[in-house]
Amino acid sequence: MKYFLFIMVLLVHLARLDAQVRIGFQVGVNDSKAFLHFNEAPNVFVQSRYPVPLLSLFVPVELELKPHFSFISGLQYVEAGNNLLLKTDMFTNIVSNRVQFLKVPVGVKLELDLKLFSLNGLGGGYVSKIVGVRQNGDVEIDAPTLGRPNFTNFDVGIWAGCSIERLLANSIKMHLTFRRNIGLKNISKSRGEGLFMDSTETALGLIFPFKKKTVVIKKARI
């Protein structure tokens, strides 16, 4: 909770600055690189893992502090998970494991203006809260391992990426964004192994001017 309070106070402080503020939305997919499994029974062997692109929704907020330099944050809903091929002496089955997050990324954007579009470098850190853990499949495993008690409530990590933006009418921008997220916190232990989140996001979205930067013109004395 303290991470979210710190970020909210920081956003309020920055919003008071004489800066261009933009707000938008992004829809995309999150491809989890983490080996996500929930303490399968000792006689169950994980034969292989299949990554599954899952939903990513993001409401970004940008504060342009200087030309070509912006502070970025927002609120994001992310799903992460994969399908596992499980084998025992009796059967083979595919099980899907999923974790849902509410994430607050914080970072900066460096913008390079080109003729028809801009190319941006992105990077920063994030905090996220796990809001759901679920598993679909017919394999019997210990019930407590299916729920949140097997997970910590929060994850923290770093991220980096790039985006391509195209200016549309009325200062609206359309952008395609790529982000790589690397978790720094062990959010679960399964069979003695740590679980650190690692994923790649691809998203498409729009961003709109919310508050325009004010320009003060001083009149010359005659």
What can you tell me about this protein's structure?
- The structure is a single chain.
- Mean pLDDT is 80; it is low at 139-148.
- This protein has 222 residues and is mostly beta strands.
- Strand 7 (154-167) and strand 8 form a beta hairpin.
- The strands form 2 sheets. An 8-stranded antiparallel β-barrel has the order 1-3-4-5-6-7-8-11.
- It has one helix at 2-15, and strands at residues 20-32, 45-51, 53-66, 69-87, 92-113, 118-136, 154-167, 173-183, 188-190, 193-195, 198-211.
- Helix content is 6%, strand content 63%.
- It has 1 helix and 11 strands; from the N terminus they run αβββββββββββ.
Radius of gyration, in Å, reads 21 Å
Outline the biggest β-sheet. 8 strands, antiparallel, barrel
- Write down the secondary-structure element order: HEEEEEEEEEEE
Distance between the termini: 57 Å
Strands of the biggest beta sheet: in what spatial order? 1-3-4-5-6-7-8-11
Q: Report the sheet-strand fraction.
A: over 45%
**Count of DSSP-assigned helices:** 1
Low-confidence stretches: 139-148
Overall pLDDT score: 80
Secondary-structure-based class equals mainly beta
The level of helicity is under 10%
